[in-house]
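Morning run. Coffee first, then this:
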Amino acid sequence: MNAAKSLAKGTRVIATGTLTERTYQAKDGQRRTSAELDVDELGASLRFAPVSVTHRPGHRDQSPAQAPDEGTAQ
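And here it is:
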């Protein structure tokens, strides 16, 4: 949802996540391979354009390493 509001078609992005390859047999009988990226983080690239970052009120910027463990008091 944030990506749709923040990025436009053709915007250069940087994505991190898990890359997997899948091999399958196409209808024409040929074996094909597809690459799929399960995206964890997505952001605009700063290589060719400046980017302005704004935080939504009430939301903290928290990476998984900074997030409190489940079951611990805050």
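The mean pLDDT is 81. Good start to the day.
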